[in-house]
Write a structure and sequence with these properties.
By secondary structure, the chain is of the alpha/beta class. It contains six helices and 16 strands. It binds zinc ion.
């Protein structure tokens, strides 16, 4: 028997559900927007300056972005210079939220954060996420700088995730929090994320595009941090006034390998939440016959799947950078 407070993984193991401290609110008031694209709001200062996009809900159950986007809209934040765009990405998945199955509304069919390549966007397949990405494409492409707000299934420290372009690292360091960075020298390895769409995925571009992982999906503190980081990001580019940031030393990790689950038998060798360290060649997970092992230098694991699902990411193997 499954209790109301547990959920079944494909392995049959049950893990307790986290408390839902952020309730998904009704977003119908934000549907019309003012750009012709549903759930997209744009404010032009009428003065020169960068166009900054704050994007929420790329994953439907990552409520912190919704908290931040609603904060910007509800408090009437307007850019002093340039242009501010605020968007809610996968509202359709968000609206499917069921507190008894809170992890299911991450996506309906496709992961909206893996389909930002020409092949997917111009391809023949169809899904709610592909339809939405095709509609959002000009919104993403129009922005100089992009903050894509996310959260994690496990309660781990917040961190940035960004392609290894100097412009991204410089912005993350200047903003100062979170202090942990996950740098992707080769991209994700499992698809094209929103922050690597088009010119933002190229070395010569001027635009910063980063993910911020603000903490556990349903924790109140995660939403509070998302608000602060969104304002910090706007402050960094001069769109709002912001107190100078403090600059504690950054702790940087480099993504070495994205492990995609291949079999229903995928198992970690021990329970993981993220940031655990494995020694050289140590076994991290077993996926059918396949062994997932740390490299010669060992590794740090990030974002281990709470419930491994075939075809989705199981875990990221990273190494600490000097
Ligand atoms: Zn996410």
């Amino acid at each position: 028997m499954m209790g109301a407070m547990s959920t079944a993984s494909p392995s049959g193991a049950a893990s307790p559900l986290p408390p839902i401290e952020i309730s998904p609110r009704d977003l119908s008031a934000y549907r019309a927007g003012n750009t012709g694209v549903p759930y997209v709001h744009r404010f032009d200062s009428g003065r020169p300056g960068p166009h900054v996009l704050i994007n929420a809900l790329t994953h439907g159950n990552e409520f912190c972005g919704m908290v931040a986007a609603c904060h910007l809209l509800d408090t009437g934040v307007r850019p002093r210079i340039g242009t501010l765009t605020v968007s809610f990405a996968n509202v359709e998945a968000y609206e499917s939220f069921d507190p008894a199955r809170p992890f299911d509304s991450r996506q309906l069919v496709h992961n909206l954060n893996r389909i930002w390549s020409e092949a997917w966007l111009a391809g023949a397949e169809d899904s709610p996420e592909l339809r939405r990405a095709r509609v959002l494409r000009p919104v993403v492409a129009a922005a100089d700088h992009i903050l894509d707000i996310h959260s994690t299934s496990q309660p781990v420290q917040p961190f940035w995730v960004y392609p290894a372009f100097a412009r991204n690292g410089a912005a993350a360091r200047a903003i100062g929090r979170p202090t942990v960075h996950l740098v992707m020298p080769q991209g994700l390895g499992s698809g094209t994320p929103l922050v690597q769409h088009g010119l933002h995925g190229t070395p010569g571009h001027h635009g910063v595009a980063m993910v911020v992982e603000c903490g556990q999906h349903f924790a109140r503190a995660t939403g509070a941090l998302a608000v602060e980081v969104a304002l910090d990001f706007l402050g960094h580019f001069g769109l709002v006034e912001r107190a100078p940031a403090t600059h504690p030393p950054a702790q940087r990790y480099e993504l070495m390998q994205t492990v995609v689950v291949q079999t229903p038998g995928f198992r970690f060798t021990r329970p993981l939440v993220g940031f655990e360290r494995f020694g050289p060649h140590e076994l991290v997970a077993q996926d059918g016959e396949r062994e997932i092992r740390a490299g010669a230098e060992g590794c740090t694991v990030l974002m281990p799947a709470r419930t491994p699902i075939v075809g989705r990411e199981g875990v990221y193997l990273a190494r600490e950078m000097a």
